[in-house]
Amino acid sequence: MSAKSVEPVVESGREIFIPLNKLKKSPKNARKTPHSEAAIEAYAASIAAKGILQNLVVEPELDAEGAATGFYFVTIGEGRRLAQLLRVKRKEIKKTEPIRCIIDTANDAFEISLDENVTRENMHPADQFEAFKKLAEERGLGAEEIRRPVRRDAACGAAAPSLGRAIAQADANLSQRRSDARPVDGLCHHRGSRPAGSSL
């Protein structure tokens, strides 16, 4: 067995630091639509200010004979990888910047990529508003300093205190409307309406 051959050990959870230029986009990534430039810019700004808060998940790249190539496929965290490459382009970091990663060969790469992208819930807009407002009022931060993807909402948080309550109320109204419309016998109709052909 060559020195670069990978032992047939299934693992999940081991943390290692891998040079940025040894990380590749995984062909098993469930997300096929490219990240937007705005999203990558936001990731880059966040990482520059706070570092990478969530580890990338990777698996070793193997050649046709099952030997390690020295590169790793990014199963989870492609947006963060692209953000770091943008920072390299801007000469903020080196291409060999060590990236903290978790090795996972125990789980199917495509499945955990899909799981990571689907089974998560975005922060409620009203909660975002209140958080931005708190940063603005208690720490004196402006929208640019907050460095969040939704900078428009950050600016609103600092400028319009009543907007958060309006967002929450609008969402509550929408939720009520959705609950009023419920499926009956395979059809979706509003409460109080009657299926065709029914009698009082």
Tell me about this structure.
The chain has 200 residues and is α/β, with parallel strands linked by helices. It folds into two domains: 12-118, Conserved hypothetical protein from pyrococcus furiosus pfu- 392566-001, ParB domain (Alpha-Beta Complex), CATH 3.90.1530.10; 125-178. It has helices spanning 37-50, 78-89, 109-118, 125-139, 143-146, 151-159, 163-180; strands at residues 12-19, 23-25, 56-62, 68-76, 98-104, 181-184, 187-190. The strands form two sheets. The protein has a five-stranded mixed sheet with strand order 1-5-3-4-2. A two-stranded antiparallel sheet has the order 6-7. Helix 4 (125-139) crosses helix 6 and helix 4 runs antiparallel to helix 7 (163-180). The N and C termini lie far apart (80 Å).
Give structural attributes:
200 residues, Conserved hypothetical protein from pyrococcus furiosus pfu- 392566-001, ParB domain, 2 domains, five-stranded mixed beta sheet, two-stranded antiparallel ribbon, 7 helices, globular
Q: What is the distance, rounded to the nearest whole angstrom, between the alpha carbons of the first and last residues?
A: 80 Å
**Shape designation:** globular
Radius of gyration: 23 Å
Q: How many structural domains does the protein architecture include?
A: 2
CATH class of the largest domain: Alpha Beta
Q: Quick one: how many beta strands?
A: 7
Major sheet summary line = 5 strands, mixed
Give the strand order, joined by hyphens, for the main sheet: 1-5-3-4-2
Secondary-structure element string:
EEHEEHEHHHHHEE
Hey, roughly how much beta strand do the residues contain? 15-25%
Q: From the helix content, strand content and strand pairing, which structural class follows? A: alpha/beta
Average pLDDT reading: 75
